[in-house]
Amino acid sequence: MVHLDSNEFKQKLSQVYNEVSKELFGFGTSLLKTSIQSDAIALYARHRRSPRSTALEGEVPALKYEVDFYMSMIYKKKLKSRLEEELGLNIEVLLRDYDPATQWAVTNIILSQPE
Questions:
Q1: Could you tell me if residue 88 is left (phi over 0), alpha (psi between -120 and 50 degrees) or otherwise beta?
Q2: Residue 86's closest CA among 6, 19, 22, 5?
Q3: pLDDT tens, 38-83?
Q4: 50 phi and psi, to 5 degrees?
Q5: Are 29 and 103 in contact, with CB atoms under 8 Å apart?
Q6: Cα torsion for 43, 68, 66, 109, to the nearest 10°?
């Protein structure tokens, strides 16, 4: 059983989140805060702006937003898989919203409850 409130768990959670970020974007977050409850986890992250993203935004803004959308979908899939594999979490749903203008992302994880 995972002890969600332990410092070790929070460190590992942050590590996995940043590893996925590095794999997909080339770098981790500049700020990451966690809020943990018995059946839910919230992650508040400020991401670094990618030079590629800035270039796309200046030249083809619609494409930049489309890329942001799909990268967020890939991020959610990869993060959910890694958290289940590495931390043994039983995730019912992982929700993520990203605001490109401010670089903030909020990830909400609802854990499955035993029946």
A1: left
A2: 19
A3: 899 999 999 876 666 666 766 777 777 888 888 889 999 999 999 9
A4: -80, 135
A5: no
A6: -20
